[in-house]
Amino acid sequence: MIRLFLILLLVFSFSAKAEEIPETIKPQLYNSQKPVLCDTPDNIIEIIDSYDENPYLKFDGISPSTDGQYLKTTIVLGFNKETESWSLVEFINDTTACIIGNGRGIYLVEQSFKLGT
Question: Is the pTM of this model over 0.70?
Fold first, then answer.
C-alpha cells in the first residue's frame, strides 16, 4: 500500500511540474509561409533535368495539409556530381510537386553537430 502511495505521489509530482513550465521556455512552433516553387511533377522534373541533377536519395515523407490532415509524400534529392548542385523535391500527389530547397554542395555529417556551427 505504501508503494502504491509513493508511486501515485511521484506521478502527480511530475505531472504538476510539467504544467509549471513557463510559456517563455516552451518552443514557439508555427507554420512557415516560405515560398516554394510548385507545378506538375513533369514540369518540376524538367526544371531539375535542366541542371543535370539525377535522383540521389529518396525519402518517404509526411506533410500537413491546409485542413490539418497529413499527406504521404515522396521527397527526392536530385544531385549533379560535377557541379555539386542539388534540389530537394517533394512529390505531393499525381498533380503537384514542389522544389522545397536547392543549392550547391553536399557534405556528409560524420558526427553529431549543433545547428549553426
Answer: no
